[in-house]
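Researcher: Quick one. two chains, 491 residues in total.
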Amino acid sequence: MTPDDLKYSKTHEWARADGDVATVGITDHAQDTLGDITFVEPPKVGAALRKGGEAGVIESVKAASDLLSPVSGEVLSVNGALSSAPEAINSEPYGAGWLFTVKMTDKAELGTLMDAAAYNKFVETEG
Amino acid sequence: MKKTPLYNSHIALGAKMSPFAGFEMPLQYGGIIKEHGAARGGAAVFDTCHMGEFRVCGGAAVRDLERVLSCDVADLRVGACRYGFMCNAGGGVMDDLIIYRMAESEFMLVVNAGTADGDFEWLAANVTGGTSLENISEKTGKIDINGPAAPKIVASMMSGPVTGLKYYGFAKNSCRGGEVIVSRTGYTGEIGFEIYCGADTVMDLWDDCIGRGAVPAGLGARDVLRLEMGYPLYGHELTAERCAAQAGFPRAVSRKKEFIGSDRVLDPAAAGQTLAGIALDGRRAARHGDALASQDGKTVGVVTSGSFSPALGFAVALAYVDNVFSDIGTELRVISGKTEIPGKICELPFYKNATARSDINLYL
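Model:
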C-alpha cells in the first residue's frame, strides 16, 4: 500500500524525486484520517517553500489541516484538477491526488525523510 | 463515556467513533459523502438511542407543558408531534425538542442527549403536583431512517401500514411482534421515520434496516444533512445565552400564550440579530466561531455552523447576523483564521429538493 519509491515525512506527506524535481502529496494514512476531502488550497507557483513549512490547506467535511512541504524549494506546478475534484486525494493519494511539484534547493533533505518501511512503522507506533 | 445499545454493531461495521454529549457515537462508517448520498438518494439509518425521552402525563399536563414549552400544546392532535423550545426566564433556549401527544393527557418529549438531565430537572421544578414525569431514556431505543427508499424499507418491516402517516404524524405499529412508535420526522430533510422501541429490541430493528438496504450513517453525515436544510443544532445555533427570538423558526414559538421566557422571546427588541444562511464562494468551509464582516470591514455577526455541502458543491454556513445585514443577497465576508471567504446571505433551506414533506405514497 505504501509505495517503495517515495520518501515520507512525519507529518504524512510524500515526495517522489526525479532529478531536482520532487512531486509532493499526502499519504494514504493521512487521507484516511482526514476523511472525504472537500477543499485544497495549494501553494502558489513560484512560491519558496521550506522543509516543514506551510504549503497550503486541506479540508475534509469534518476537519481543516495545514499542508506542510516535505522538502525546500520553489513551486513549479500545482495539480489544478483538485480544485473541482479534491476527492482524487482520497481515491489515489499516490497518483492522481498529487498536490504540487517543487524544484528542490537541497536534495540532501531527501535523506532525512523516511522510506516506506520506516514510515509504516512510524504510523503503527504513532497509533 | 456511555454507550448506546448499538455500540457493538458500530464497532463491527468499522465505524470511527467519537465522543458526543457523553456518548461514544459513530462519526462515520464508509465516509461522510457516501452516507450523505444514501440519505439524499437511497436510505440512511442513524443510531439516535442517545437522545432523551420523557413521559409526561396527568390532568394538568397540558397546562404545565403550555407554560414550559414555546410551542402550542393544547391544540396538538393525538397522533401528531410538534417542534418547540424549552426556554429559560431570559428567553434563552435550554433545549429544542419534539413533543408527541400520545393520548389526551399523555405526552412524550424527545430532547437532546447533552441537555436531557438539565431538562428533566427544569421540568420537575416547573410542573405542578398533578403532572407525573418519567425519564424513559434508558429503556427507549431509537433509530432514524431517512431517504427516498426509507418508506419501502419500513413498510416491509412493519406489521401495520405506514401509508397514513403525514409529515409530523406518528402511530403505534409492530415489528417482529414488538410494539414500536413510527414517527414521520427526522433531521435530514428527507422522507422517512424516527422509530422508537425498547432498548433491548433496537439492535434487531437496526440490523433489519441494514439488511433491507439502508446504509448506516454517522453523526458526520447527519450534521451535513441538517445544515443543508438550515436546521439548528443545539450548542451551535441554539444556546441558553441567546434569545429564541433571534433563531427564527416561527412555528416553534406560539404568539397566543405566555410561557417561561415569552416576554423576552416575543419582544422584537430582543432580536438584534437573526439566524441566516450564507452561501460561500467555493468549497472552503467556514467554522463555528468565525466572525462575519461587512464589505467595509465591520464585524456584523458570527458563524454557528459551516461545512462543504455535498449536495450543492459549495460551502454553506449558518450565522447570527445583525438585522440590517440579514437581507437576502447581502454580501459579507467570513473571517476564517488567516483567510477571508466571500459569501452572500441566501434563503433557507440551502438544499431545496428534499423529500420530507412529499406524499408518502410516491415512495411506496
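Chain A is about 15% helix and 35% strand.
Researcher: Thanks, that's what I needed.
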